[in-house]
Amino acid sequence: xxxxxxxxxxxxxxxxxxxxxxxxxxxxxxxxxxxxxxxxxxxxxxxxxxxxxxxxxxxxxxxxxxxxxxxxxxxxxxxxxxxxxxxxxxxxxxxxxxxxxxxxxxxxxxxxxxxxxxxxxxxxxxxxxxxxxxxxxxxxxxxxxxxxxxxxxxxxxxxxxxxxxxxxxxxxxxxxxxxxxxxx
Length: 184
What we know:
- This protein is mainly α.
- It folds into two domains: about 5-115, no CATH class; about 125-165, no CATH class.
- The chain is about 50% helix and about 5% strand.
- It is built from seven helices and two strands.
- It has a two-stranded antiparallel sheet with strand order 1-2.
- Helix 4 crosses helix 7 (about 105-115).
């Protein structure tokens, strides 16, 4: 006998197959899948939801409960259910029209990842004077073409804040060792 969550998930999956465009239905299906994951892990005696035994147990559970959610949707839904509070908080910031358009696991997950990803620093934000210049290399370098530890200064621009790191802040790079060539 299926639990109430699984029964509701089956009903929501039926609506989705009929063409429902409801994110709420996907969340109900996701809750049912999470219950199925727990049952499959127990049946497979698995600590993690991976492996042949787990996959076989989950496939059997999905078949028994008539939740034939495609693998790609299922994977995205498992990911979303693992971070549902954060996703729901993000969705609350969207316009009603945007929320209605984001009604499938793949579209919600993709949009959420884009919106919350750390944005790369544009190349124009990197100033030329922050680069190590060959002219800064002196004769007392450990090897030709490599600056000495005193000369190394790294500046990184992160979210419009400059971060300065000197060679005193990081372990020194091992000195280059020349290996004598083998003579016959």
